[in-house]
Amino acid sequence: MSIDDLEQASQVCDAAARGAGVSVRSLTDLADLARVVELFADVWGRSANPPVSLEMLRALTKAGNYVGGAVEHGRLVGACVGFFHAPSEDALHSHIAGVVPEATGRSIGFALKLHQRAWALGRGVEEIAWTFDPLVARNAWFNLVKLGAQPSEYLANFYGPMQDDLNGTDDTDRLLVRWRLRDPEVAAACAGRLRGADVPWSSAAGAVEVLRPDRSGRPERIDAEGPLALVRVPTDVERLRVTDPATARSWRESVREVLGEMLQAGGRVEGFDRTGCYVVRRTS
After folding, report:
1. Largest CA distance in the chain
2. Residue 157 — left, alpha, or beta (φ > 0 → left; ψ -120 to 50 → alpha)?
3. Could you please report the per-residue DSSP string of 222-276?
4. How far apart are CA 17 and CA 109, in angstroms?
5. Which of 11, 109, 205, 261 is the most buried (most CB within 10 A)?
6. 75: domain CATH number?
7. What residue stretches are annotated with the N-acetyltransferase domain (predicted)?
8. pLDDT digit string (tens) for 53-112?
9. SS3 252
10. What is the pTM of this model?
11. Would the CA dihedral through 14, 176, 180, 228 be positive or negative?
């Protein structure tokens, strides 16, 4: 780990926090950890069964794991929690991150992730991994483009039923991504130079649609050959789960079949288009 890498990570972290209008720091104090528990309970709508407990956070921080918070005028508006992988894996698993609804859209989540990256690099960690719902287009854009993380595995119904405000009764399929902290593309993304911010080259490079909405908005699978495949997802699946649960479930099943099968066969996600589709390079 070079001093230059750490200095660059710290600089972009500080710039992101200033741009979001927050200060981001590690949290270890019991009162601060209690605020993290409350924040996640509010964001996920699980006050009776919060996603993390105070006792668990206390144990994680005592063992040297990561809990970070974004603070605005003395109020916690975002938080992120991670714990280390097995020693031989040299990685941190970023388990959960959230921002209060009234503070979304200000890149607070970006500032939190850059703080987590600088924190990990300062401890000699090379990689951070986490999961996200592949149907949520804004999260795909954030993770794959704005942060430069790389999907490595499709996990069907990974957490089982969660029954909260964000997941509803849907299966909890997840994409596991790996964020290689010193990768030049990751460093460029963290500095604002986005990878694949627009993908007009995909069609010119021979990309073919293999999943798209039909006229009714339901998923339509297309048998098409080509080295690059476009897998489209709904524009706002969280709203769709409320307004049309049956269609939302059909999207879950179709994305699981198409994207999951391609990744299992060795395909590589090369980007996420602004129009809402994964760009996947298929195996020959």
Report:
1. 56
2. left
3. -----SEEEEE--S-HHHHHHH-HHHHHHHHHHHHHHHHHHHHTT-EEEEEETTT
4. 10
5. 109
6. 3.40.630.30
7. 22-167
8. 999 999 999 999 999 999 999 999 999 999 999 998 899 999 999 999 999 999 999 999
9. helix
10. 0.92
11. negative
Question: What is the spatial distance between Cα 63 and Cα 159, in angstroms, rounded to a whole number?
Answer: 24
Locus of tokens 């995909």:
202
Phi, psi (deg, nearest 5) at residue 136: -85, 100
Collapsing DSSP to helix, strand or coil, 225 comes out as coil
Across the chain, mean pLDDT equals 92
186 and 214 part of one domain: no
| Separation CA 111–CA 22 (nearest Å) | 8
| Residue length of the chain | 284
Q: How far apart are CA 225 and CA 217, in angstroms?
A: 23
Cα(243)–Cα(237) distance, rounded to whole angstroms? Answer: 10
> Pick from 134, 165, 190: which residue ends a domain?
190
Domain region containing 244: 201-281
DSSP class of residue 265 equals T
Q: Which residue has the tokens 């601060």?
A: 32
Candidates 172, 179, 127, 126; CA nearest to 151 is 179
* 8-state DSSP, 136: -
Examine the fold and report which residue of 171, 190, 209 is the final residue of a domain before the chain moves on: 190
Give the pLDDT confidence of 119-169 residue by residue, as tens digits. 999 999 999 999 999 999 999 999 999 999 999 999 999 998 776 666 667
Q: Say which amino acid occupies 195.
A: R
CA distances from 75 to 32, 46, 69, 166, 274 (A): 10, 20, 10, 23, 33
Query: What is the distance between the alpha carbons of residues 26 and 217, in angstroms, rounded to a whole number?
Result: 43
Sign of CA dihedral 15, 16, 21, 25: negative
Closest CA to 97 of 121, 74, 77: 77
